[in-house]
Design brief:
The complex is a heterodimer of chains A (about 575) and B (about 90).
Chain A: E1 2-5, E2 7-10, E3 13-20, H1 36-64, H2 67-80, H3 83-96, H4 100-116, H5 121-142, E4 156-160, H6 165-170, E5 176-181, H7 189-197, E6 201-203, E7 217-221, E8 226-229, H8 233-255, E9 261-262, E10 268-275, H9 278-286, E11 292-295, H10 310-324, E12 328-332, H11 359-365, H12 367-380, E13 385-390, H13 396-416, E14 425-430, H14 433-437, H15 439-443, E15 448-451, H16 453-460, H17 479-494, E16 498-501, H18 512-518, E17 522-525, H19 530-538, H20 542-552, H21 558-568, H22 570-573
Parallel strand pairs in A: 3-4, 4-5, 5-6, 10-11, 10-17, 11-12, 12-13, 13-14, 14-15, 15-16, 16-17
Antiparallel strand pairs in A: 1-8, 2-6, 3-7, 7-8, 9-10
Helix pairs in contact in A: 1-2, 1-5, 2-5, 3-4, 4-5, 8-19, 9-10, 10-12, 12-13, 18-20
Chain B: E1 2-7, H1 16-26, E2 32-38, E3 45-49, H2 53-59, E4 66-72, H3 76-88
The chains are: A alpha/beta (about 575), B alpha+beta (about 90).
């Protein structure tokens, strides 16, 4: 048995025979042409044909993979239609009286080299794209078949130097167990496509993998980026058990998506969705979300030139609230600031917008924006299960101020005789450390908390999550953040209030045992995660998780905490993407 | 000629989808449109055809970098305005 390690490119584990994917080498000779105009016509014809092929692959990718993956081929099309590329190839043909193949190859190579030389991983991966597109044109010019004759007959693990998107799309997916490439990275297309297909992939294993002969049994472990060549039966058996466990969980998750999430020891948790429009609402319902834990309202304000009217907002909120009927929908009031610029609001630029007058802070000084939104929400809540939530609360006074404006709106609506939801729950986002630290005081002012872990992490760790240099620090798995979450839940429960979470952490499988152990009542996440999260909760014991959470919070780093959870609850490690 | 500077604030800079949206938008106008920015390593100013995906990609614009959009032609004003709007609203990303 031989161990090889690479870069994790797509989660999952598979066992099977390898199938080496070897491309036919294109032999391009440089020869002179007399009639350069005819050569350009020949080039144009080849490019037209290549565009045609790519359009077909695009259609295939749309039905087989996700839209994002299919967009790769639109990018390919754009490369082929690129005015700079064509200009250079044609001018090379004309100036040097050289054949189209050679001109195409040279220019594609030079653009590709330019990309490969860039620091950024993303651009390096794009170098492959350009060569892929260039080679397609070359194959047409040379009369070589479109795809290498892959006599793939049985389910196999594909090994290759590096696979191009065209290679992977043309493969029969039912026969592909996983991908393993000698080169490539976590951002290469093989990785992206493998994730889209939900099959394991390991990249950058090294040239040695290509020496493994066709049919050799290997274990491809996309979780730990390991490749075990020719493993013994005991190892195979051990891995088979892991695969079965993960498989049955995913299957059960989809089957029971519309059933409640009740832990082994009978604790029922609410699993709801984060949405920002009607489309999200539909996906949420399809995936079995039991309501909405975060309805973002910013979508109404972006890409327009004036403040949306109360009536417009009423219609938009009502459309979503009506879809959920009796299910709860937590509507978050406007959360904008200096970073999401909305010109018509006339906000002054701030040197540090994350610490500036944003969200509720802005709404409290701008009743012209705040009141129409509150009135629209209250009206849309009539007959539905609306809950209101204020973002960016730092002090109890802010909550009282916001409630005062809300009471004003309620009084006005009463006088006007308009129907509206009167007795709604009002809560706040806990995303500023100060709010977490005085959660006991805030709990007296509200009906619920929803913890926003993205902002809570970046404010607690003083690390801008959009700055790649420090983004690692802005991680909710740091014990500092988890301890704040613990304290918030304790403070809320002491006042008999419920606590939800609508940050990314709530949809993170590795965090679920800890959050359950800390006593979180409601988990809100992107709709596609709902079925799996419910299933994970069903497999856990809330009482046992208390001890696990306590121990996890004594550790020092996200890595330690994640490893600890994986060790204690092995099935979760297999599910994470 | 119409010229405007703007800082690219979206997460990935002028990469994949944003770069393609940018080029597609530029291609809607008849004006000659150039986009340029300073190479962070060499401090040299590089200028490329805004209608060329390869040009825009090789410019290597990442988050926080300032670009200059310059158009010349009959629809230069709406062209620059449209591209600036695209960048300003982070290409429709959250």
């Amino acid at each position: 048995m031989k161990h090889l390690t690479g870069i994790p490119a797509s989660r999952g584990i598979c066992i099977g025979p390898v199938f080496p994917f070897v491309r036919e080498e294109l032999r391009v000779e440089s020869y002179c042409v007399e009639d350069t105009q005819a050569e350009i016509v020949r080039l144009d014809a080849a490019i037209d044909k290549a565009i045609d092929q790519i359009s077909q692959i695009y259609k295939k990718a749309l039905t087989e993979a996700s839209k994002a993956d299919a967009e790769i081929f639109q990018a390919h099309r754009m490369i082929l239609e690129d005015p700079e590329l064509l200009k250079e190839v044609k001018s090379k043909i004309q100036k040097e009286s050289i054949c189209a193949e050679f001109a195409m190859m040279t220019i594609a190579q030079s653009f590709s080299d330019m990309m490969a030389a860039m620091q950024d991983e993303y651009f390096k991966a794009r170098a492959t794209d350009i060569m892929d597109v260039g080679n397609r044109v070359l194959r047409i010019l040379l009369g070589v078949a479109e795809t290498p004759t892959a006599d793939l007959k049985e389910p196999s693990i594909i090994i290759a130097d590096d696979l191009t998107p065209s290679d992977t799309v043309m493969l029969d997916k039912l026969l592909v167990l996983g991908f393993c490439t000698a080169h490539g990275s976590a951002t290469s297309h093989t990785a992206i496509l493998a994730r889209g297909l939900g099959i394991p992939a390991v990249s950058g294993v090294g040239a040695e993998i290509m020496k493994v002969s066709k049919g050799t049994r290997v274990i491809l472990d996309g979780v730990h980026a390991k490749v075990l060549v020719d493993p013994d039966d005991a190892t195979v058996k051990q891995y088979q058990q892991l695969i079965e466990a993960a498989h049955s969980i995913n299957e059960a998750a989809m089957k029971h998506a519309h059933e409640p999430a009740i832990t082994k020891d009978g604790v029922r948790l609410e699993v709801v969705a984060n949405i920002g429009n009607v489309k999200g609402a539909r996906t949420a319902i399809e995936n079995g979300a039991e309501g909405v834990g975060l309805l973002r309202t910013e979508f109404l304000y972006l890409e327009r030139t004036s403040v949306p009217t109360e009536e417009e907002q009423y219609q938009a909120y009502k459309a979503i609230l009506d879809m959920f009927g009796k299910m709860p929908v937590v509507l978050r009031t406007l959360d904008v600031g200096g970073d999401k610029e909305i010109p018509y609001l006339g906000l002054a630029a701030e040197s540090n917008s994350f610490l500036g007058q944003r969200a509720l802070r802005l709404c409290l000084v701008r009743p012209d924006i705040f009141k129409p939104q509150l009135r629209a929400a209250l009206r849309a809540g009539d007959g539905n299960n609306l809950k209101l939530m204020f973002p960016m609360v730092a002090t109890a006074q802010e909550v009282r101020d916001a409630r005062k404006v809300l009471d004003e709106c309620i009084r006005e609506l009463k006088v006007e005789g308009k129907p509206f939801a009167e007795n709604i729950e009002v809560g706040i986002m806990v995303e500023i450390p100060s709010a977490a630290l005085v959660a006991d005081q805030l709990a007296k002012e509200v009906d619920f908390f929803s913890i926003g872990t993205n902002d809570l992490s970046q404010y607690t760790m003083a690390a801008d999550r959009t700055n790649p240099k420090v983004a690692d620090l802005s991680n909710a798995f740091f014990p500092a953040v988890l301890r704040l979450i613990r304290d918030v839940i304790i403070a809320a429960h002491a006042e008999g209030k419920w606590v939800g979470m609508c940050g990314e952490l709530a949809g993170e499988p590795l965090a679920v045992p800890i959050l359950l152990g800390l006593g979180l009542d409601e988990f809100s996440m992107n709709p596609p995660m709902v079925p799996l999260l419910k299933q994970i909760l069903r497999a856990l014991d809330a009482k046992e998780m208390k001890a696990i959470a306590e121990q996890a919070l004594q550790l020092e780093s996200p890595q330690q905490i994640e490893d600890f959870v994986k060790k204690k609850i092995p099935f979760i490690a297999q599910l994470v993407d | 000629m119409k010229e405007t500077q703007i800082v690219v604030n979206n997460k990935v800079g002028l990469h994949a989808r944003p770069a393609s949206l940018f080029v597609q938008e530029a291609a809607k106008y008849v004006s000659d449109i150039k986009v340029s920015c300073q190479d962070p390593d060499t401090m040299e100013n590089r200028e490329v055809n805004a209608k060329s995906i390869l040009g825009v990609l090789t410019l290597g614009v990442s988050q926080g970098m300032e670009i200059t959009i310059c158009a010349e032609g009959e629809d230069e004003v709406p062209a620059v305005e449209a591209l600036i709007t695209l960048v300003k609203y982070n290409f429709g990303e959250e």
